[in-house]
Amino acid sequence: MSALYSLLTVLVLILLAYFGVASAHLGVLFGTVIPFAAIAVFLAGLAYRVVKWANTPVPFRIPSTCGQQKSLPWIKQGRLESPSTALGVLGRMALEVLLFRSLFRNTKAELRDGPRLVYGENKWLWLGALAFHWTFLVIFLRHLRFFMEPVPRLVNLLADVDGFFQVGAPVLYVTDLVILAALLYLLFRRLRDPQIRYISLFTDYFALFLLLGLAGSGVLMRYFTRADIVAIKELAIGLVTFSPVIPKEVGPLFFVHLFLLCVLLAYFPFSKLMHAPGVFLSPTRNLANNNRMKRHVNPWDYPVKVHTYAEWEEEFHDKIKAAGLPLDRE
Amino acid sequence: MAEKQPKPEDLAQVDYRPPKKGWMDPHVDFRKGTYCYSALAKNIEYLGMPNPRDWQPFNADWKLPPNWKQIILDGMKDRLEKYRSFRLFMDICVRCGACADKCHFYVGSGDPKNMPVLRAELIRSVYRRYFTPAGKAFGALAGGRELTEDVIKEWFYYFYQCTECRRCSVFCPYGIDQAEITMIGRELLNLLGLNINWVIEPAANCFRTGNHLGIQPHGFADSIGFAVDELEEITGVRVEAPINRKGAEVLFVTPSADYFGTPHYYTLLGYLQLFHEIGLDYTWSAFAGEGGNFGLFTSHEMIKRLNNKIYAEAKRLGVKWIIGGECGHMWRVIHQYMDTMNGPANFLEVPKSPITGTVFENAKSTKMVHITEFTSDLIRNGKLKLDPTRNDHWNVTFHDSCNPARAMGLFEEPRYVIKNTCRNFHEMPENTIREQTFCCGSGAGLGTDENFEMRMRGGLPRANAVKHVHETKGVNVLSCICAIDKANLSTLMEYWVPGVEVAGIHEFVGNALVMKGEKERTTDLRGTPLRGKEAAHA
Question: What residues contact residue A266 under an 8 Å CB cut-off, 6+ apart?
Answer without folding.
Answer: A37, A38, A41, A42, A45
